[in-house]
C-alpha cells in the first residue's frame, strides 16, 4: 500500500478532518465539484461507513457523529461532512489528531492548560472522538481509531495535506503542542503535517486563534476560480509559505479552509 494510503497514524499526527455545515446536500455539491469527492449515504444514518450512531455525549459542543457522510476520492476516505445540530455553533472545518488513548490525552490537555470542549464520544465501532481547545482557544479534534484509522489518501490532489495553527503567541503554542505531541512533531520519524504561525501574519487582529485545514490542488488559480463559480469566495489571496503556495477560501456556507499548491 502506498504511503499516501495511510492505514495507521501515530499520536499527534493529523488523521482526519470534518466540516459541520447547515446544508449537507449543498456541501456535497460544493466539495464534490471542487475536489472530485463522492459521498457515502445522505447523512440520515443509512449510508455505510461513517453513518454509525454516536454514543455517550453526542450532542456536546454542537457536534454530532450520528448523521455524517464520508467523502471519498477513488474509493478511499478523505474527509467527512455533517449537518450542524446547533445553529449557534460555527460552520467550520475541524482537524483531528490521532491518539491510542483519547481519555488519557484529554487529561494531559487539561493539565497543560487547555480544555475539553466535547468529552470523548463513541461513534459505533469507527472510533472515539473528542474536541479540545488549546490555552488560546483554538479548537481541534482527537481521534482514537476503531475500524476507521483516518485518511485513506492524503498529500495528493483533492486530499488533506496540511494543518496550520494560527496563534497569537507562537512560543506558547510550540510549548503546548510540543509537550502533547513531541514525538510526532520532533521525533526521528516525525511527519507532523502541522505547523504553527502568528495569526497576524495572515489574518486581521480580531480573528481568533484557529486551525486551518489545507487541501492540495494542482493549480491554485484554477481552484480559486472554481471556488467562486461554486458560490464560495477568497478570504486571503495567494501567499507563499515554506510548505507551498496557499490561499484561504470560504465555501458556499461559510466554512474556511485553505487550498495549497506544491
Automatic annotation (TrEMBL):
Domain of life: Bacteria
InterPro entries: Anthracycline_SecMetBiosynth (IPR052164), Glyas_Bleomycin-R_OHBP_Dase (IPR029068), Glyas_Fos-R_dOase_dom (IPR004360), VOC_core (IPR037523)
The VOC domain, residue ranges: 13-145
PANTHER family registered for this protein in UniProt: CONSERVED PROTEIN, GLYOXALASE-RELATED
Protein name (record): VOC family protein
Organism the protein comes from: Streptomyces thermogriseus
